[in-house]
Specification:
Blueprint (H helix, E strand, L loop, with lengths): L1 E4 L2 H12 L7 E5 L6 H10 L14 E4 L5 E5 L6 H6 L10 E5 L13 E7 L5 E6 L9
Parallel strand pairs: 2-5, 2-6, 4-5
Antiparallel strand pairs: 1-7, 3-4, 6-7
Helix pairs in contact: 1-2
C-alpha cells in the first residue's frame, strides 16, 4: 500500500487507518529520515487505543500508552543493535500490546518476518510518501 500526504494532519489520518488493522501482539516498524513524520504517524495510531499524548521517546527509548490495548512506542535512534534492546527489556513487551518502533532499520533483520513495515519518504516541503508492507486485516474483522 502506498499513500501520499500533504500535511501532518494527513499523516495522522493514515496512522488512524493503520490502527484499524492492528491487534495485540503486532509489531509496526517505521523508517524514515529525521523530520519525515514517524512520530506524527504514531500519534494517529495511538489515538485509536489511548487518550495519552504522544511524545518521541528519544531519551527514554520507550513510552508506554495505556488504553484498550497497551501501546509501546520505541525510538531506537540511539540504540546500537538488537542486543542492546534485549538488555533494556525488549522481551518484557512482546505480545503484551502493540509495539511501534521508530528507526526500525537498525533491527529489521532481528524482527519476525511478518512485522508491519512502514517507510516514510519526504517528497516535498510538507509532502510525504508512506509505504506499508504486511498490513493485513485479521480473519475476525469485517
Amino acid at each position: 500500500m502506498r499513500f501520499f500526504t500533504k500535511s501532518a494532519k494527513d499523516t495522522i489520518k493514515i496512522g488512524k487507518r493503520i490502527a484499524f488493522f492492528l491487534k495485540k501482539g503486532d509489531i509496526v516498524g517505521i523508517s524514515g529520515e529525521l523530520g519525515s513524520g514517524k512520530t506524527t504517524l504514531i500519534k494517529g495510531i495511538v489515538k485509536n487505543f489511548s487518550k495519552s499524548r504522544v511524545f518521541s521517546p528519544s531519551f527514554v527509548i520507550v513510552n508506554e500508552y495505556e488504553g484498550k490495548i497497551p501501546v509501546f512506542h520505541f525510538d531506537i535512534y540511539r540504540i546500537k543493535g538488537f542486543d542492546e534492546l534485549i538488555d533494556i527489556g525488549w522481551n518484557d513487551y512482546i505480545n503484551k500490546g502493540i509495539i511501534l518502533i521508530e528507526w526500525v532499520e537498525k533491527i529489521k533483520k532481528d524482527l519476525p518476518k511478518n512485522f508491519i513495515y512502514v517507510k516514510i519518504k519526504i517528497v516535498g516541503e510538507n509532502k510525504r510518501m508512506i509505504e506499508i508492507k504486511n498490513l493485513k486485516r485479521s480473519k475476525n474483522d469485517k
